[in-house]
Design the sequence.
């Protein structure tokens, strides 16, 4: 079989519809994780209504998007969450949703276990309560564990245990694997991004250079059993490609719809500079995906800048656009976590406070207690 | 026995999305995404359910003798990952 153009080039040039679409359904959240990508907390009054959300799902079905990754905020606290899940799956748009576990009771787990079209990701950022709760908040480890117990008891095998890799949990990779195994789950590891509130804690939480190498070795050894959402393609600069496309899919094969319908190039790029349009615009989501100026630019040739002369450039392609942007580095140039070490001196030269601030911010004011209604 | 001598069809939980380069396949049960790397392979896969054997489906889609091994490998991979299901009638 002859393939004239490598597959990855087709993806870099963009597809008629995304392969993988993230949809943050609400900015409301019962937690206040320090590294939240979407600065979530309070519900936005302009959130898409149930009817508007269903219209988006109709469009995704017409565009043959296989499944949507639903997140937030905490999506399950939207009162119409299950109605939207049912609406999507009835027309064979699969749903994979990320949750901190707060609503995954045994009844809910039972129902999830019986659906072919719904997958669940439980977020946990420490294999112990101590490490997890320091980032995700007091009691969040217990909430996640109870959710996993309920899913396992209901016979839901293969749900995902989703971990953002930080300086404090890299030493726990084997423990995460064991924890996932205990509940019949699959481990998913993703990269910490300096997006949302993550920008404020990135210096403190992002893995050290030595830890990045440790992670790379660990992924090479366990890669086939562990999902990464293609998160660590910047590590390909070490030499061997990790499983996955090893490509920045932003605006090419992935994008984000936020709770108010704004479409961004990727889930880590909630900022006006990466906003392609809104699903409420004439033409809806399809028009934004197919003809937004931003996405057209991303699908065109990209400048490598200082990276173009590097031997690793073909492997890492300069790393993550959002990581560069929110740390104040130029997009054409090395990733702040460049494995060749080219990011560090540049980071040190960024004037403090000059990096673009993530926007919008839906964080709750500090000290406001959260109570959830029963349902 | 070669995958080519058996009769196949797409597994019922698989969705196919044609693309300029070929197609994307998604299995809702295994939650696995696969790529068909050319349009002819898509034609073969789409013709499987109507053909008495995969070899026939390849012939109908115009796969020449020099290419048949590559298609055999691609189909075997799809069968291994449950994208295809063996047909008995």
Sequence:
């Amino acid at each position: 079989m002859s393939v004239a153009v490598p597959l990855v080039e087709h993806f870099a040039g963009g597809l008629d519809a995304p392969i993988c679409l993230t949809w943050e359904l609400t900015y409301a959240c019962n937690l206040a994780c320090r590294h939240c990508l979407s600065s979530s907390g309070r519900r936005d009054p302009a959130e898409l209504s149930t009817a508007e959300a269903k219209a988006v799902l109709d469009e995704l079905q017409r565009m043959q998007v296989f499944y949507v990754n639903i997140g937030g905020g905490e999506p399950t606290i939207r009162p119409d969450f299950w109605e939207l899940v049912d609406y999507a799956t009835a027309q064979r748009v699969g749903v994979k949703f990320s949750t901190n576990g707060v609503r995954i009771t045994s009844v809910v787990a039972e129902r999830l276990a019986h659906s072919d079209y719904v997958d669940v990701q439980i977020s946990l950022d420490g294999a112990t309560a101590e490490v997890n709760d320091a980032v995700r908040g007091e009691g969040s480890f217990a909430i996640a564990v109870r959710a996993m117990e309920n899913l396992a008891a209901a016979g839901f095998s293969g749900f995902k245990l989703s971990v953002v890799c930080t300086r404090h949990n890299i030493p726990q990779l084997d423990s995460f694997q064991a924890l996932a195994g205990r509940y019949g789950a699959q481990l998913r590891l993703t990269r910490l991004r300096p997006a949302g509130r993550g920008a404020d804690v990135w210096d403190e939480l992002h893995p050290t250079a030595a830890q990045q190498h440790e992670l790379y070795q660990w992924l090479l050894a366990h890669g086939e059993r562990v999902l990464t959402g293609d998160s660590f393609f910047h590590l390909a600069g070490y030499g061997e490609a990790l499983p996955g496309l090893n490509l920045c899919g932003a605006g090419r094969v992935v994008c984000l719809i936020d709770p108010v319908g704004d479409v961004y190039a990727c889930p880590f790029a909630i900022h006006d500079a990466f906003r392609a349009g809104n699903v409420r615009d004439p033409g809806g989501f399809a028009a934004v995906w197919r003809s937004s100026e931003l996405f057209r630019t991303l699908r065109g040739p990209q400048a490598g800048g200082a990276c173009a002369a590097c031997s690793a450039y073909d492997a890492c392609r300069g790393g993550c656009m959002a990581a560069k942007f929110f740390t104040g580095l130029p997009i054409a140039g090395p990733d702040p976590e460049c494995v060749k070490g080219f990011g560090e001196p540049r980071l040190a030269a960024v004037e403090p406070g000059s990096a673009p601030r993530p926007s919008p911010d839906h964080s709750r004011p500090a000290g406001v207690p959260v109570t959830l209604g029963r349902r | 026995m070669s995958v080519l001598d058996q009769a196949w069809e797409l597994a019922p939980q698989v969705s196919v999305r044609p693309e300029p380069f070929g197609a994307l396949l998604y299995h809702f049960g295994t939650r696995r995404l696969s790529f068909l790397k050319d349009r002819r392979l898509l034609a073969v896969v789409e013709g499987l359910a109507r053909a008495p054997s995969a070899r026939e489906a390849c012939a109908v889609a115009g796969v020449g003798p020099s290419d048949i091994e590559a298609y055999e490998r691609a189909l075997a991979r799809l069968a291994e990952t449950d994208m295809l299901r063996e047909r008995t009638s």
Q: What stands out?
A: Chain A has a mean pLDDT of 93. Chain A touches chain B through 20 residues (CB under 8 Å).
